[in-house]
Amino acid sequence: HGYSVVAVEANVRAAEKARAELPESDRLMILNAAITDGSTAEVTFLINGERPDMSALPGTAEASKILEHLVESVTIPTTTCERLLTEAGQEVHYMKVDVEGAGDVCLGDLERVPADRLPRYLSMELPNLSTEGEAAGLEARDMLLRLHRLGYTGFKIARQSPYNGRVEASENAQGHPIAVTRQGLGYGAAGLFGEDAVDFLAGPRWRGVDRVLADLDGPNLGHVWMYQTMGEWFDLHCALQ
């Protein structure tokens, strides 16, 4: 049977490529829009032609990493996580949130939607304690507790490198390194979701909020921090149970 999928991509070039390789149908919609707080109908978006994964909205931490001479500036429409959920017209089985700096905005939207519109399964990228310091640890704990208050009681912390391990290989014509995943140039994935997602300590078993909080308890005790010092990054998966 499969699922009906709505994919939201702010990078217009990536959206165009996705439409070319995955033709839209009644089961797949590729929406070129930026996730924002909904205060404006359109925004400027900066596209990094060499590293599309580092494209971003101006003023974000991600935008500061873009090399100026590699940037294309485009105007794109906006949408919100609240709008996507309320307009879905049916139960949302799973929602993947990886919106480069707008995760908190999306989480705020989730706190406003009716409980019966919340996705059964949800995943969000965890802040990196290794590169972003103590503030990232506090942000990760806050994310977990807010999701728990929404009614999510099962949690998994899933490694990302097995599905999207990146290495810098060769150089382009301008002498900049090219990021290549284990799956090849331009390929990668976020891994399994829902019941099939794999917690880095407990495997496919869901864990309670207290057990997961212990893994986010700073550099002295946090297992997550220790993995991140070795280049790992994580998604937090949660379930309404």
In short:
The chain is an alpha/beta fold.
Structural write-up:
With 241 residues, this protein is α/β, with parallel strands linked by helices. The chain contains 9 helices and 11 strands. It has helices spanning 12-21, 81-86, 103-110, 129-132, 134-149, 161-164, 209-214, 218-221, 223-228, and strands at residues 5-8, 28-31, 34-35, 42-48, 71-79, 94-97, 121-125, 152-159, 166-171, 177-181, 234-240. Strand 9 (166-171) and strand 10 (177-181) form a beta hairpin. The radius of gyration is 18 Å and the shape is globular. The mean pLDDT is 83.
Indicate the radius of gyration in whole angstroms: 18 Å
Mean pLDDT: 83
How is the biggest beta sheet arranged?
A: 4 strands, mixed
Counting helices, strands and paired strands, the structural category is alpha/beta
Indicate the topology.
Elements: E1 5-8, H1 12-21, E2 28-31, E3 34-35, E4 42-48, E5 71-79, H2 81-86, E6 94-97, H3 103-110, E7 121-125, H4 129-132, H5 134-149, E8 152-159, H6 161-164, E9 166-171, E10 177-181, H7 209-214, H8 218-221, H9 223-228, E11 234-240
Key features?
241 residues; alpha/beta; 25% strand
